[in-house]
Amino acid sequence: GDGVLVLMDLGSAVLxxxxxxxxxxxxxxxxxxxxxxxxxxxAAAVAAQAGQSLDAVAAEAAGGLRAKLAHLDxxxxxxxxxxxxxxxxxxxxxxxxxxxxxxxxxLHARPAARFVRVAASFEGVEVEVSNATTGAGPEPATSLNxxxxxxxxxxxxxxxxxxxxxxxxxxxxxxDVAAPGSSPEPQRGGxxxxxxxxxxxxxxxxxxxLRGIAxxxxxAIAPVRWLGSDAGGGGGSAVEARATGTADEEWAxxxxxxxxxxxxxxxxxxxxxxxVGEAEAEILDALALTLDDPALLGPARTAIEGGASATVxxxxxxxxxxxxxxxxxxxxxxxxxxxxxxxARRVAERIGGAGAARGADATxxxxxxxxAGGAGPASEAASPxxxxxRELTPLDAAxxxxxxxxxxxxxxxxxxSHGAILARALGVPAVVAxxxxxxxxxxxxxxxxDGDAGLLVPDPDQxxxxxxxxxxxxxxxxxxxxxxxxxxxxxxxxEVTIEVAANVGGADEARDAVAAGADGxxxxxxxxxxxxxxxxxxxxxxxxxxxxxxxxxDGRPLIIRTLDAGADKPxxxxxxxxxxxxxxxxxxxxxxxxxxxxxxxxxxxxxxxxADHEHVKLMFPMVATVEELRAARAAxxxxxxxxxxxxxxxxxxxxxxxxxxxxxxxxxxxxxxDFLSLGTNDLTQYVLAAExxxxxxxxxxxxxxxxxxxxxxxxxxxxxxxxxxxxxxGELAADPAAIPLLVGLGVRxxxxxxxxxxxxxxxxxxxxxxAAGELASRALAAESAxxxxxxxxxxxx
Length: 797
Ligand code: PEP
Ligand code: MG
Description:
By secondary structure, the chain is α/β, with parallel strands linked by helices.
């Protein structure tokens, strides 16, 4: 219904096509494109199938020549290619934006996939992107591989050009994806390994142990087992030969194989979302997008038309793209080439008829993806083992069962590979980059894997085995003991009760936290309710969400933090002007005061919930001054008046202390609130001027620095003088080295991630507040974070 795109070859065809258009009655929107016939048609069909506009389809067709040019390394310049398509309009009707990319690691898989999806969501807007730092591009923003192989790293300058009715909105939304405010995307679940390490060669230690890179903590002791086609260290994947059919048959075979892999990815995505959550499952979305990438399908179709088999056409279309990834400078982005190669291999195997069994084992009981690979009968594979692989791909990792795969060791890979990220999220100890020596370890060999030290010890002697068994059992015992008492209050030896609550993003997490022993919720991050939508939730919607969280807590305290958007949590629908330093800009309460209706709606919803649930509390984020607090309290009074709601018992109003100024005037603030909750994540970044999440200053941003602890002490003293209580809801609250100090300084509530509740309670129970106070005094006098850590270790001994 949008119109027709006509592709022509030479001169006379142009004339005939133009005449045909003239004769059309009634007139139809027809574009004549100089795009290459086969690549252009395929690229156009894929774009049209994705629901893109006629303009976008025409642009995609015009870009169809690029893959061939890149492949043949033709001397034609980009300008000539641009000029060859009627879809590439002149620049007079385009708008452009130039900015520095701030997402961690640049436009790699997930941000690149988000970028492509956002670009495609603007119907009728044509977007192209260049990497101004390296000179790569321009590339169409609707091709994942084109975007990913621009090699855009954090700190690179990007030029985005858009044409169409909503071009400016598209630019703004794309900037929000690539430069959301200078902070990296949050890595949820598992340790965050910051920085990118080059893979060192694996080393064999004198005792026969192999050294690699520690990439997921913990100890595993079990026989090893090679993953599927890597079995025996042979590596390589055999793609079955099959007779080549007609072009239509080959194209159909490729489509079927892609559909099969798409289903395989979907299955594992579901499994992964259930096991570790949505954020990690998104890694697989990027892989699924790869299957429909015009940059792959165009050349594959051309080769098939030229008589190639589906396998050859597909493999050869993938190779130059993988090579482009491998030529990138950044090892993290290079690793995305491995992900693409893995998906492509699975497609090739399916074309050859070898992939179906592999697809099925995502849900079988084998525990790892090796059941189909000939490494032994499924029953053997189902026994607990340490999985060995050349590389652990995201799809392999997504399909494994942590109950059976006790550890992972790989020849190559790095701690930032998606496989490694997923291993951490699944809680499976892993060591990567063990190098060639690992290939000599045969399936069935007994081994010890130390995910903390980055070691694999094949055939350990009895003393080594005993030592590791003792360490593993001790850690398991401590965890079991903490778990057994998770639902009891955390009382110090001298009978001071410390409330151990949870930080959550919604009702489901609140329910999980209660099951994990949390005494309540110390921080409901309401921004999660506002993200990933087109507009803010209305009052009734918010009431329903907060009520669900309160219901899940069954009378336990629920601290609802008002919206903390801005900085690293942008809300595109608020259409805020870009800021040079968003962490010092319009975020938290500042945004609420600048957009009074946003804050007022939320406050009305909160007081309505507080009127039918006890112990609902509210706190304001990013308070820097007494004036802000007073303005927020005035808005709260107005919300009470407007709703007529009378909050029930236990309703309290507090502030987050996360800006140094608030800590320094805590006496003034404490006079006007019921409690203070220290947001040590932000407080630390502001005190040490070390942006949270920036790996270059990660070591500096240590909340145990005496400068931070002195502010904690100041806040506790000021609160005590006014009879108010102090909590900590930053990450520091779960740090075993920090717990004695925080309690010693007077903190009485620790709010941590749900899975940490049991361990934090256990850490509180061994404390004596007087001794902790003495230790804290010494920490305040220390000269560095390292000195404080040394003190707490000595103190604990
Ligand atoms: C903090 O800053 O410590 C905090 C808990 O808030 P957030 O991490 O959500 O900024
Ligand atoms: Mg904060």
